[in-house]
């Protein structure tokens, strides 16, 4: 409370509030007392009435009924309490008096014509009218149920005269509440016996019933409207509440009219609806107009609305400006939508039950989900809604958008193939948004409504979301007839490949645009994954432009109002939110329409974009067409920023690699032409991978590009340098497979550069990178002698500069394979377009003596001579270098302090020696194997010496030296690793097998059974195992 408020004013205000509360309490108590007293009178006279009627005293029963009905003369009760009193009396009249009068007339105890005259002598008009309505309703019941044909001597019941008489007599009650309830009673008592005869006469016709119900409804509406002006003006709000409580009574008249048997469309259009609409428009009451228009829409059949839609929409234009015309139009549209859904379900069920029973020879009328084609549904609604939006200045952008959403839903349900209808709706929405005030667009309700306009077509066309390109307002651009990487293209700029859809989308803030983009991406990926047989694809340049440049652009590139983390917070709001609590900050974000994303959301969005890239392919499958699409796509992906390209460029590059293989499978192109295209493509790939390698991968809150980054931002992604390294090597493999040595060499050199420039690579990452290098280079066979030697030497140098000696040893063992290149395969393409054959340039040399020093470090380069053949036609095989790598690895392993690791490295080295010896490398001899076996056994002996004797016997004694297959387990930290021991046993078993096989072959050769090579005779036999 303001401290400057005078105490006297505060006291008066409190006293006024308390007085009002006491007044309301007293009024409530008074109403309850009045109702209880009236109900007590009703119960008393109802009991006496039933007693008199059971005794046969009809006139006495009328007298008690009249006294009971006299309680309805009160004006002190509220409409709610008056309704309770009315229902108590109605139950007595309908359940006892009316059946007694009907039975008495049938049994001849009295005649209804006499009773109808007698009840008119009641002293008060309210009891008189109720009794007249009761007797008249019974009279109509007799006429409706009479099956005796009328003759000239028997007069029919004057039903038509009774109805007209009751209408005239009802005018005598002009009090709104009493008049409403009496007319409601009159409608309720006569509803089951309304005439519908075809021939006019005393019994009446359908027109008589229509006239009676219409006039009764019109008078009820006038009384209902008049209730608003009873009492003091200060009680206006109270009167509105009371009127809303009575609206069901007024609407019952329209319900009776809709239930009238025999009512057809022609009569409804020419007589009923014009009278109803005339009364609704002329009453000029807000509550009445809104409610009654809604009742008309809800209670009458849809077929009536189809034939009278022009009248309904014309009447809405004549309603008061205060009336919410939007609700009327929305109610009508939603009724048609529900009808279309129901009709579609019924038709599907009918087809399911009657397959084979439908006569297709008969022509059926064209319908759109139950709506006849001749009904201009959309044009009528379109004219009405656009007229309302242009003439009703009080309509906000939210009101206009709500109307357009309903109309769009109707079109998508009824006319899904009429793309021009959806396009017109989106175009009109774009115009209204451009004319709207800026503050209106910041409203969350308005934003969500416009968002529905954009999401609904995407959900409807989920089988092919790219139908948006077929909108009449979209730019029709022909597909390129050339390759943009080879021949420069000239095309006009366009920002509306999806027409009005894109134009409206660009007018929205960042958050709703992001929602639309996410929905589009998810829909396209889903249909691409489900339509395996149809192979859905983004198959044209326009589709790529529309999808990545318009619909999903907010997920592909940074915008002025947002980036990959979400919408950018305005600077003023950013400063204010820095001093608020978390709850207040969330409230601020809701007000300005921001959506905070976490790292998982960002990953999900970017993964959808990555999946979209794999759907970009031409319908012909020709690599030229695919390359054209990729060139357009690259322009959009390149603007994604440092984080996005780490998601999008790798799948894009893999699509480029697939295009390379597509070129290599072509049969109808000259090799020179293919080579030129591939060179251009390799240059394109090189530029793309370089862009990825320069991406930033450390993000902080102080970075203006990504302000207020979520937790774990950027985690889980591969470092750009390492990712680029892998992609460069993949590109090198493609170039090697096509016979382009120079591009392949440059790609590997670029991979080396990425390795050297990535200062953040730890030891494990460096080892992983070297493994990738070794695997990639061992799979390439297109390098010349000198280039291959340079690359292998560089990898060996990297391996020797690792931090940990164990890593150096392992990598040198792996690198040794590269110094003995496999036989070259025939390459598909050469730089000049010719195929290249390969020859075997295997050279051998012998080493006479080898010892401990030579095994651990003295490189043997003597005797190695390089072939004078052309570099392109020889495999690189350098036996001394192989031996040098093995020597260095063994020396490094011997320097390791951890005995378990040293033991493991010795076993791995032995495995490599065995491999190279089987490959018949001239620098590897059986003495190397014997020495290593002895060395490893000595290591095992060291483990035995440190363990107890029992463990030593169980672990190694009976296994290694006796040939048993397993080593026992022993407790303690000095035991040799079990898996390494098993590995060593496997190697020994393999060597024994080779030794035994060689001995058998020699024995067979000596016996003349088989043949054996004497070049390596007694080689395996020299093994000391």
TrEMBL record:
<comment type="similarity">
    <text>Belongs to the VPS35 family.</text>
</comment>
<dbReference type="GO" id="GO:0030906">
    <property type="term" value="C:retromer, cargo-selective complex"/>
</dbReference>
<dbReference type="GO" id="GO:0006886">
    <property type="term" value="P:intracellular protein transport"/>
</dbReference>
<comment type="function">
    <text>Plays a role in vesicular protein sorting.</text>
</comment>
<feature type="region of interest" description="Disordered">
    <location>
        <begin position="1"/>
        <end position="27"/>
    </location>
</feature>
<dbReference type="GO" id="GO:0042147">
    <property type="term" value="P:retrograde transport, endosome to Golgi"/>
</dbReference>
<dbReference type="Pfam" id="PF03635">
    <property type="entry name" value="Vps35"/>
</dbReference>
<dbReference type="GO" id="GO:0005829">
    <property type="term" value="C:cytosol"/>
</dbReference>
<feature type="compositionally biased region" description="Polar residues">
    <location>
        <begin position="17"/>
        <end position="26"/>
    </location>
</feature>
<keyword id="KW-0813">Transport</keyword>
<dbReference type="InterPro" id="IPR042491">
    <property type="entry name" value="Vps35_C"/>
</dbReference>
<feature type="compositionally biased region" description="Polar residues">
    <location>
        <begin position="1"/>
        <end position="10"/>
    </location>
</feature>
<keyword id="KW-0472">Membrane</keyword>
<protein>
    <recommendedName>
        <fullName>Vacuolar protein sorting-associated protein 35</fullName>
    </recommendedName>
</protein>
<keyword id="KW-0653">Protein transport</keyword>
<dbReference type="InterPro" id="IPR005378">
    <property type="entry name" value="Vps35"/>
</dbReference>
<dbReference type="GO" id="GO:0005770">
    <property type="term" value="C:late endosome"/>
</dbReference>
């Amino acid at each position: 409370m303001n401290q400057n408020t005078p105490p006297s004013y505060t006291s008066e205000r409190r006293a006024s509030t308390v007085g009002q509360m006491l007044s309301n309490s007293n009024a409530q108590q008074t109403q309850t007392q009045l109702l209880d007293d009236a109900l007590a009178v009703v119960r008393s006279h109802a009991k006496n009435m039933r007693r008199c009627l059971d005794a046969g005293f009809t006139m006495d029963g009328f007298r008690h009924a009249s006294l009971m009905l006299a309680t309805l003369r009160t004006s002190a009760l509220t409409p709610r309490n008056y309704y309770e009193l009315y229902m108590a009396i109605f139950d007595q009249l309908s359940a006892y008096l009316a059946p007694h009068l009907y039975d008495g007339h049938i049994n001849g105890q009295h005649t209804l014509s006499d009773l109808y005259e007698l009840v008119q002598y009641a002293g008060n008009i309210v009891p008189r009218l109720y009794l007249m309505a009761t007797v008249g309703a019974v009279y109509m019941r007799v006429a409706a149920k009479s099956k005796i044909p009328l003759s000239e001597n028997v007069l029919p019941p004057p039903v038509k005269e009774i109805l007209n008489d009751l209408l005239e007599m009802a005018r005598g009650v002009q009090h709104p509440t009493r008049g409403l309830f009496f007319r409601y009673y009159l409608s309720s008592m006569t509803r089951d016996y309304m005439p519908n005869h075809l021939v006019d006469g005393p019994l009446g016709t359908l027109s008589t019933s229509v006239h009676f119900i219409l006039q009764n409804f019109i008078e009820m509406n006038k009384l209902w409207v008049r209730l608003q002006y009873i009492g003091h003006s200060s009680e206006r709000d109270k009167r509105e509440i009371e009127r809303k409580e009575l609206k069901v009574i007024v609407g019952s008249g329209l319900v009776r009219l809709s239930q009238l048997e025999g009512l057809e469309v022609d009569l409804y259009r020419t007589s009923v609806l014009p009278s109803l609409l005339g009364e609704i428009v002329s009453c000029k009451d807000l509550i009445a107009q809104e409610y009654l228009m809604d009742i008309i829409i809800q209670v009458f059949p849809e077929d009536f609305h189809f034939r009278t839609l022009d009248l309904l929409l014309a009447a809405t234009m004549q309603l008061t400006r205060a009336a919410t015309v939007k609700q009327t139009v929305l109610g009508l549209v939603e009724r048609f939508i529900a009808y279309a859904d129901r009709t579609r379900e019924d038709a599907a069920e009918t087809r399911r039950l009657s397959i084979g029973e439908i006569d297709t020879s008969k022509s059926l009328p064209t319908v759109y989900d139950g709506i006849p084609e001749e009904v201009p549904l959309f044009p009528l609604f379109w004219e009405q809604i656009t007229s309302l939006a242009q003439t009703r200045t009080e309509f906000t952008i939210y009101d206009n958008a709500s109307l357009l959403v309903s109309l769009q839903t109707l079109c998508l349900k009824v006319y899904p193939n009429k793309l021009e209808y959806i396009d017109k709706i989106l175009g009109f929405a774009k115009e209204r948004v451009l004319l709207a005030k800026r503050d209106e667009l910041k409203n969350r309700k308005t934003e969500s409504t416009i968002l529905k306009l954009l999401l609904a077509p995407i959900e409807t066309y989920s089988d092919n979301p790219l139908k948006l390109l077929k909108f009449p307002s979209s730019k029709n651009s022909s597909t390129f007839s050339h390759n943009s990487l080879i021949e420069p293209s000239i095309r006009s700029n366009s920002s509306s490949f999806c027409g009005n859809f894109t134009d409206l989308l660009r007018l929205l803030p960042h958050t709703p645009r992001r929602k639309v983009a996410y929905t589009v991406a998810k829909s396209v990926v889903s249909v691409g994954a489900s339509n395996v047989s149809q192979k859905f694809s983004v198959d044209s340049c326009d589709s790529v432009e529309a999808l990545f440049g318009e619909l999903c652009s907010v997920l592909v590139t940074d915008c002025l109002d947002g980036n990959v983390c979400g919408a950018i917070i305005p600077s003023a709001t950013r400063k204010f939110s820095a001093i608020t609590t978390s709850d207040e900050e969330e409230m601020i974000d809701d007000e300005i329409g921001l959506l905070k994303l976490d790292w998982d959301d960002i990953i999900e969005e970017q993964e959808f974009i990555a999946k979209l890239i794999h759907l970009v392919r031409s319908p012909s499958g020709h690599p030229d067409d695919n390359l054209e699409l990729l060139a357009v796509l690259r322009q959009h992906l390149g603007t994604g920023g440092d984080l996005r390209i780490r998601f999008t460029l790798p799948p894009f590059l893999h699509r480029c690699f697939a295009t390379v293989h597509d070129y290599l499978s072509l049969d109808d192109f000259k090799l020179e032409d293919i080579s030129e295209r591939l060179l251009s493509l390799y240059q394109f790939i090189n530029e793309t991978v370089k862009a990825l390698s320069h991406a930033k991968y450390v993000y902080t809150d102080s970075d203006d590009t990504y302000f207020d980054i979520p937790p774990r931002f950027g985690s889980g992604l591969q470092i750009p340098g390492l990712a680029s390294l892998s992609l460069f090597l993949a590109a090198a493999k493609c170039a090697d497979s096509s016979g382009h040595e120079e591009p392949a060499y440059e790609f590997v050199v670029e991979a080396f550069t990425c390795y050297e420039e990535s200062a953040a690579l730890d030891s494990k990452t460096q080892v992983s990178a070297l493994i990738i290098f070794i695997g990639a280079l061992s799979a390439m066979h297109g390098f010349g002698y000198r280039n291959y030697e340079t690359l292998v030497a560089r990898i060996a140098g990297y391996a020797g500069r690792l931090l940990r000696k164990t890593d150096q040893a392992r990598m040198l063992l792996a690198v040794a394979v590269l110094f003995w290149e496999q036989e070259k395969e025939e390459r598909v393409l050469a730089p000049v377009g010719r195929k290249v054959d390969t020859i075997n340039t295997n050279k051998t040399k012998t080493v006479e003596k080898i010892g401990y020093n030579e095994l651990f470090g003295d490189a043997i380069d003597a005797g190695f001579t390089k072939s004078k053949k052309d570099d392109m036609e020889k495999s690189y095989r350098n036996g001394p270098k192989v031996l040098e790598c093995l020597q260095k690895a063994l020396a490094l392993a011997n320097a390791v302090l951890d005995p378990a690791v040293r033991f493991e490295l010795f076993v791995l080295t032995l495995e490599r020696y065995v491999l190279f010896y089987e490959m018949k490398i001239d620098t590897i001899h059986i003495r190397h194997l014997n020495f290593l076996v002895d060395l490893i056994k000595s290591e095992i002996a060291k483990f035995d010496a440190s363990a107890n004797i029992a463990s030593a016997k169980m672990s190694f004694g009976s296994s290694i030296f006796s040939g048993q297959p397993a080593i026992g387990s022993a407790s303690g930290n000095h035991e040799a690793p079990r898996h390494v021991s098993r590995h060593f046993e496997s190697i020994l078993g393999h060597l024994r097998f080779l030794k035994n096989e060689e001995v058998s072959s020699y024995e067979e050769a000596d016996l003349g059974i088989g043949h054996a090579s004497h070049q390596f005779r007694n080689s395996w036999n020299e093994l000391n195992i």
